[in-house]
Specification:
The chain has 20 helices and 16 strands. It is α/β, with parallel strands linked by helices. The chain binds adenosine-5'-triphosphate. This is Two-component system response regulator.
Length: about 450
């Protein structure tokens, strides 16, 4: 079956080059130069994939993705962006993008990502649409890297402890820290391991579709409901349901989710009939969920129901002792995937990796290693094979004597200590600004001013 890709990029020559490359690889391509024309095209045809640049003349790539979710929820999405905008790229994953690709785009890397996105989309929809799931799902063939640092070993211990229980688990961690991986591990080590592990990305659901995706709908329940559909709760019956980015769930649907969890039954949209379900829920969200509870976007009662056991995944930058193990693993899988035999990493590359901040965590590391393997082809990965920005940013982050010691200037010393204290408290309270302000004995607006003054990542 030929897949359709909507390419959105305002650079005419790049757009043309990309489109011809995809056409040569057997895809049907619609190419447009702005978000407005993308939306126009989406109103006429539903592509399998939307491949969009971040910088567009009208809406930016993230804003376009929000619209795509509404008007074409079944299309997979990939964002293309410069390495300098890596934080934007990370955000795109939270909004439901399958993956981000950094510019300059490497065609082979892009092709792999496009194929993976389409495969993933097919997997998800056939799972969601299958009426009966008679066959038991296969055990995951993925290898789980535990890590050798204290924090990682503790996380692993917690996974093993909570897995066999019936407890709902809430996994907190920045984007790309391996929350879905951890959820799969919990499932695979549980008594439900031979049953379904269903996932639903709450970040990619529009308000309208969220309830139907979770609980299903009956024919005629709303325009477009052409037949009865099972929701993920029913699909996961007997097994585990992983609710990714649960913090993004619309408020109304949160009420229904709480009800489903308490009563262990669901009601399809448009139906009064209760359907009993036995589902273990594992939810995940980024650190900011605590903040969302603050600002009344997330129901506290649901938060507590989901959080019978909390698992916190450390960002990669805080567990550099695990780096070597991940590098080996990602190099090995990239070699396998690309049919290459790259042997390892030059020392200076590892030093750059150690100093870099990794805002996209393991996902970013995996992508950097995969791209470097592809560029390197044989021998050892050197500095020339990794993004320039990564090298400059890691140098900027490397503490030098001047930056690190505040000297004898009292004002400097005071500010240095203030910044460090705020950073520490924010980490301790998982970036809940109200709690941090309370502990620091200042009001929230003072805290916000200081966060911006010291450029603290919060
Ligand atoms: N323990 C692990 N062992 C090996 N690879 C891992 C592990 N954890 C994560 N990864 C890799 O990192 C990638 C991102 O992981 P995952 O999707 O689980 O992160 P996430 O925290 O759920 O991300 P997001 O919040 O953005 O959805 C995975 O595709 C996988 O390649």
């Amino acid at each position: 079956m030929q897949h359709t890709i909507l390419v959105v990029d305002d650079d005419p020559s790049f757009n043309k080059m990309l489109s011809s490359f995809l056409i040569r690889n057997d895809f049907k391509v619609n190419s447009v130069f702005s978000s407005a024309s993308a939306l126009e095209s989406l109103s006429q045809e539903t592509p399998d994939l939307v491949l969009t640049d971040f910088k567009l003349p009208d809406l930016n790539g993230l804003e376009l993705m929000e619209k795509v979710k509404e008007v074409s929820p079944k299309s997979a999405m990939i964002l293309m962006t410069n390495y300098q905008d890596i934080r934007t790229a990370v955000k795109s994953i939270q909004l439901g993008a399958f993956e981000f690709v950094t510019k300059p785009v490497n065609p082979d890397e892009l092709l792999l990502t496009v194929k993976a996105a389409l495969k993933h989309k097919q997997g998800v929809s056939s799972e969601a649409e299958s009426k009966q799931r008679e066959s038991k799902p296969k055990q995951s063939e993925r290898k789980h890297i535990v890590g050798k640092g204290e924090k990682s070993l503790q996380t692993w211990e917690h996974i093993q402890l909570v897995a066999p229980t019936k407890m709902s688990v809430l996994i907190l961690g920045e984007s790309g820290t391996g929350k879905e991986y951890a959820a799969r591990m919990i499932h695979e080590k549980s008594k439900r391991a031979n049953e379904v592990f269903a996932t639903i990305d709450c970040g990619s659901l529009s308000k309208e579709l969220a309830a139907s995706e979770l609980f299903g709908h009956v024919k005629g329940a709303f325009t477009g409901a052409l037949s009865d559909k099972k929701g993920q709760f029913e699909i996961a019956n007997g097994g585990t349901l992983f609710l990714d980015e649960v913090g993004n769930l619309p408020y109304d649907v949160q009420v229904q989710l709480l009800r489903a969890l308490e009563e262990r039954s669901v009601r399809k949209v448009g139906s009064e009939k209760e359907i009993k379900v036995d589902v273990r829920v594992i939810a995940a969200t980024n650190e900011k969920m605590a903040g969302a509870i603050d600002s009344q976007h997330f129901r506290l009662d649901l938060y507590h129901r989901l959080n019978e056991f909390e698992l916190h995944l450390e960002p990669l930058r805080n567990r550099m002792e695990d780096l070597d193990e991940y590098l080996d693993f990602f190099l090995h899988s990239s070699n396998n995937e690309l049919d290459l035999e790259v042997t390892g990493f030059a020392e200076e590359v590892v030093s750059v990796f150690k100093a870099y901040h990794w805002p996209g965590n393991l996902r970013e590391l995996r992508n950097v290693v995969r791209r470097a393997t592809l560029l390197c082809q044989r021998g050892q990965i050197g500095l020339g094979h990794i993004p320039e920005t990564l090298i400059t940013e890691s140098r900027a982050q490397q503490p030098n004597a001047e930056q690190n010691t505040p000297g004898y200037d009292l004002k400097n010393i005071q500010e240095h200590q203030e910044k460090e204290t705020i950073q520490r408290v924010l980490e301790e309270v998982r970036y809940n600004k109200s709690k941090a302000a309370e502990l620091l004995n200042i009001d929230r607006s003072t805290l916000y001013n200081k966060i911006s003054k010291y450029q603290i990542k919060a």
